[in-house]
Amino acid sequence: MSSSDVAIIGVGLHPFGRYPGKSALEMGEDAVFDALTDAGIEWSDVQELYAGSMEVKNPEAIVGLLGLTGVPGRAVFTGCATGATSLAMAANSIKLGEHDITIAVGLDKHERGAFAAHPSVSGLPGWYGEAGLFLTTHFFGMKINRYMHDFGITPETLAKVSAKAMRNGAANPSAWRRKALSEEEILNSQILNYPLTQYMYCGPDEGAAAVVLCRADKAHLYTDTPVYLRASTLRSRREGAFELLSPSLPLESVPSPTVDASKEAYEIAGIAPSDVDVIQLQDTDAGSEIIHMAENGFCADGDQEKLIAAGETEIAGRLPINTDGGLLANGEPVGASGLRQIFELVNQLRGRAGDRQVNDAKVGYAQLYGAPGTAAVTILST
Q1: Which of 57, 165, 197, 369 has the maximal Cβ count within 10 Å?
Q2: Cα(247)–Cα(289) distance, integer angstroms
């Protein structure tokens, strides 16, 4: 390992859910100290901090709780890709030789209800979302409808995705939703935007996650089980607002940012989709997980129906996806969600995921997609 390689030596999580009376920064504080304990270091050892949040406009103010050491602190926000962006920036600081130990933390505290268009996220005027013309349920409902029409995906397959998420969440002591649900219960729950029902869609909530990074050649000083960052890519859309908002855009006309980010990450890491052992995909809704399976190279469009029916995406399957329950079981505090994925992958690669453990996991893959059309991919390995 060279001084420009990067290892993860500690991860921490404040469980996602609802915490009245507790601020996002306080949840972030808990996640950071959890990660520091995991890494076996003190806050004073951290040389740079990247903090991501949607609701907290200056999340780097978390240093007021962690300790005023003078550490450089930078705020990060790239929609739902924020977690991967903060991780990449913390890693790049090490790659450039600026620091030996850095930390990425994500934190958020959202109100109840679906995300609506907001000028800072979507580029649309505020009244657009306030009038109900752009809710995330609408967008994802339209998107999976088009995909189902083109590739023969059925509502029953959407229900299988959600049922898997709830089963995995039930086995995850940190998950928000910890009750397994049958496919029938999911199909018969309240429709949010056809074909998505209540339990096919994630909910905005609260929580935090943190990751401690270190020069790979020094990782042995802190842990016997470092996890190495092999690739971290971020790509934006090519077609402007039309690509983001219109389900009538031909899916094959231009690569999505997820496809771009995924191909670049595989090339940088020097691996193929078949080399990946455990997968985290953005599952804002059950349909997103299905679409992202193909966009990240794990199957062809339309093959998801048979793969999911055969149990291939289950923990014991060939393509274990969202082993911690994903967004469907954990909800989505935007700034923290991507680092929650890394928390799960690191625990899987270290063999400490308990009842959710994937056998002999050596390569982990995480993907994020968020408004206004930004995608990120991270690849980890032992």
Answers
A1: 165
A2: 17
> Going by DSSP bridges, is the β-strand pair 374-381/227-236 parallel, antiparallel, or unpaired?
antiparallel
Q: Which residues contact 124 (CB under 8 A, 6 or more apart)?
A: 117, 118, 134, 241
Q: By C-alpha distance, which of 332, 307, 301, 335 is closest to 321? A: 307
Residue identified by tokens 């990660």 is 35
CA–CA distance, 118 with 205 (Å, rounded to integer): 17
Nearest to 118 by CA among 54, 24, 32, 53: 54
Distances in Å between the Cα of 8 and the Cα atoms of 20, 107, 211 are: 32, 19, 7
Tell me which CATH homologous superfamily contains domain 6-112+206-229.
Thiolase/Chalcone synthase (3.40.47.10)
Give the model confidence (pLDDT) of 194-248 as tens digits.
899 999 999 999 999 999 999 999 999 999 999 999 999 999 887 755 455 554 4
Q: What is the pLDDT of residues 302-360, one digit of tens each?
A: 999 999 999 999 999 999 999 999 999 999 999 999 999 999 999 999 999 999 999 99
- 295: number of Cβ within 10 Å: 25
Task: Please enumerate in sequence order all residues whose Cβ is within 8 A of that of 157, keeping only pairs 6 or more positions apart, or say none.
Answer: 290, 304, 305, 308, 309
Radius of gyration of the CA atoms of the chain, in A = 19
Count of CB atoms situated within 10 Å of the CB of 267: 11
Contact in structure between 356 and 349 (CB atoms under 8 Å):
no
Q: For residue 257, count other CB atoms closer than 10 A to its CB.
A: 26
Query: What phi-psi label fits residue 367: left (phi over 0), alpha (psi between -120 and 50 degrees) or beta?
Result: beta
- At 347, is the secondary structure helix, strand, or coil? helix
Eight-class DSSP state of 75: E
- The pairing of strands 206-215 and 6-17 is antiparallel
Nearest to 290 by CA among 335, 326, 337, 250: 326
Give me the CATH code for the 148-202+230-381 domain, please.
3.40.47.10
Q: Which residues pair with 14 in a beta bridge?
A: 208
Q: pTM (2 decimals)?
A: 0.93
What region does 8 belong to: left with phi over 0, alpha with psi -120 to 50, or beta?
Answer: beta
Q: What pLDDT, on a 0 to 100 scale, did the predictor assign at position 242?
A: 47
Beta strands in 216-302 (DSSP E): 227-236, 278-280
Domain boundaries, the chain: 6-112+206-229, 148-202+230-381
Residue type, position 372, single letter: P
